[in-house]
Amino acid sequence: MMLSDVLFKIKKKDPTFSFRISCRQGVCGSDGMNINGRNGLACITSIKDLLKKCKKVVVKPLTGFLILKDLVVNMSDFFDRYKEIFPYIIENNENGCIKKRNHIQSISQRNKLNGLYGCILCACCSSSCPSVWWNTDKFIGPAGLLTSYRFLSDDRDHGKNFRLNHLQDSFKVFKCHNIMNCISSCPKNLNPNRAIRKIKIMLLKNMLNLT
Ligand code: SF4
Ligand code: SF4
Ligand code: FES
């Protein structure tokens, strides 16, 4: 039995009890919450495993987000910061003309994206990051920066300089102080901190014109 099954049982008793859920298989990212002090997805968290470690299960909404009701939080800041990294391939639009063509990629170039594209936007990482709590309107946060690095690493993308110039300030990236909570809280075993460190190096090289 998963934690989400218990949440549904509670909802049966109290229909006003509110939480987000959709796929129930760890894919959509809608049921991120704090479970016994650690962020995770209710749909893939086994009650049996939780009870092995602790006699009771305490569930709270994601930390650092405005609570709308029960376990439902306001994700607006999270998605606003995500939009700031332009989460799509930027085309070569020299002369204002977007070339329509296939985006062919070699196997080795494709392999560079491994570990960078599996984010399901559950916000478990951002919610566990103190830098996000204090700079929610300025620091992009681990989820957005992981995806930013995914596009900076993609040889089909033509927006590298644009992306780096946009990230070049003291908040968007450099507010990451390597606290590493983002790694331990990611239910997809991704490593946002490694991506952030790579972006920092790119930004420093960009600043010193070493690219
Ligand atoms: S490593 Fe950076 S992004 Fe990750 S939790 Fe720490 S400060 Fe936040
Ligand atoms: S990096 Fe991991 S924890 Fe963060 S939003 Fe993506 S899937 Fe969730
Ligand atoms: S319900 Fe979709 S990830 Fe849990």
Describe the protein's architecture and organization.
- This protein has two domains: 3-7 and 16-69, Roll (Ubiquitin-like (UB roll)); 76-93 and 104-207, Alpha-helical ferredoxin (Fumarate Reductase Iron-sulfur Protein, Chain B, domain 2), CATH 1.10.1060.
- The protein is mainly α and 211 residues long.
- The mean pLDDT is 94.
- The longest helix is centred in the last third of the chain and has 16 residues, at 192-207.
- It has ten helices and five strands; from the N terminus they run H-E-E-H-E-E-E-H-H-H-H-H-H-H-H.
- The strands form two sheets. The protein has a three-stranded antiparallel β-sheet.
- Bound molecules: iron/sulfur cluster (2 copies) and FE2/S2 (inorganic) cluster (FES).
Notable traits:
211 residues; Ubiquitin-like (UB roll); Fumarate Reductase Iron-sulfur Protein, Chain B, domain 2; 5 strands; 7% strand; elongated; binds iron/sulfur cluster
Per-chain topology:
Layout: H1 3-13, E1 32-35, E2 38-41, H2 47-53, E3 59-60, E4 67-69, E5 72-73, H3 76-83, H4 107-111, H5 124-127, H6 130-134, H7 142-152, H8 160-167, H9 181-185, H10 192-207
Antiparallel strand pairs: 1-2, 1-3, 4-5
Helix pairs in contact: 3-7, 7-10, 8-10
Can you identify the CATH class of the largest domain? Mainly Alpha
Walk across the major sheet and give the strand order: 2-1-3
**What kind of sheet is the major sheet?**
3 strands, antiparallel
Q: Tell me the structural class.
A: mainly alpha
Give the mean pLDDT.
94
